[in-house]
Automatic annotation (TrEMBL):
It comes from Micrurus surinamensis. It is found in: Endomembrane system. This is Clathrin adaptor alpha/beta/gamma-adaptin appendage Ig-like subdomain domain-containing protein. It holds the Pfam family Alpha_adaptinC2. Gene3D superfamilies: 2.60.40.1230, TATA-Binding Protein.
């Protein structure tokens, strides 16, 4: 996914509405049924929500949603197993939003894995105004689902109702770890059980640019280890996922093949679910 500059129009509302989801979200069926058995399905998310969510895997600031009525900007910071997220809700119309209510929900078992404290937002958002909401986040244990935010408000008498994934992924709780070549390969061998490794071979969806790749890997949260891999074209990274319950050591290797326009990504961590999920998240970034 592309990595726009962090200043992606967070505080000034864009002059021209984005075309990604041009139609106002006025239909009632956008509400995700949080009690359903398969909360991970993206059915019911606002138009473009999944693509926008994936853009935040390797960055913390940007525009999470923009339609004809509303722009939602995000700024976030994470340290160890804690995070703080600022959501900026901008009313792009000249009419006030009434009964403006954002509500966070936790699909699956997420309530036991993430703790999010939200501060209430003023229910009236004047035309052209922007309101801010602060979310304090604590990672209790590793997780794979993303929390959802449902936003309801009245615009000109019509109830608007949309649901988005909040850009909180387990890699946000990475602590980058520097290590020498010898240490890296020693740890790599220690994580040699089949379930500790996740690997994916995939086609490049973007231009294979080494500077962009480095920026994304650093944005993902791992340290980039220079002169560790005998092949200088490969990227090697290391980090520790910090949660309240446990720490998960993670090693990664990304091998680009420019001729075939392919990548091979290998993750080795001390926990199977973390290896798989990090591999899935990161492979969608190239």
């Amino acid at each position: 996914a592309s990595t726009p500059s962090p200043s992606a129009d967070l505080l000034g509302l864009r002059a021209t509405p984005a075309t990604a989801s041009g139609a106002p979200a006025s239909t009632g069926n956008l509400l995700v049924d949080v009690f359903s058995d398969s909360p991970s399905t993206t059915a019911g998310l606002a138009s473009g929500a999944e693509e926008n969510f994936l853009r935040f895997v390797c960055k913390n600031n940007g525009v999470l949603l923009e339609n004809q009525l509303l722009q939602i900007g995000v700024k976030s910071e994470f340290r160890q197993n804690l995070g703080r997220m600022y959501l900026f809700y901008g009313n792009k119309t000249s009419v006030q939003f009434q009964s403006f209510t954002p509500t966070v929900s936790y699909p699956g078992d997420l309530q036991n894995q993430l703790n999010i404290q939200t501060k209430a937002v003023e229910p009236l958002v004047e035309g052209g105004a922007q309101v801010q909401q602060v979310l304090n986040i604590e990672c209790l244990s590793d997780f794979t689902e993303a929390p959802l935010i449902n936003i309801k408000f009245r615009y000109g008498g019509t109830l608007q109702n949309l649901t988005l994934k909040l850009p909180i992924t387990v890699n946000k709780f990475f602590q980058a770890t520097e290590m020498q070549s010898q240490d890296f390969f020693q740890r790599w061998k220690q994580l040699s059980l089949p379930q500790q490794e996740a690997q994916k071979i995939f086609k490049a969806n973007h231009l294979m640019d080494s500077e962009v790749t480095k920026a994304k890997l650093l944005g993902f949260g791992s340290a980039l280890l220079e002169k560790v891999d005998p092949n200088p074209d490969n990227y090697v990274g290391a980090g520790i996922i910090q949660t309240k319950a446990l720490q998960v050591g993670c090693l990664l290797r990304l091998e680009p093949n420019a001729q075939a326009q392919m990548y091979r990504l290998t993750l080795r961590t001390s926990k199977e679910s973390v290896s798989k999920h990090l591999c899935e998240l990161l492979s969608q970034q190239f």
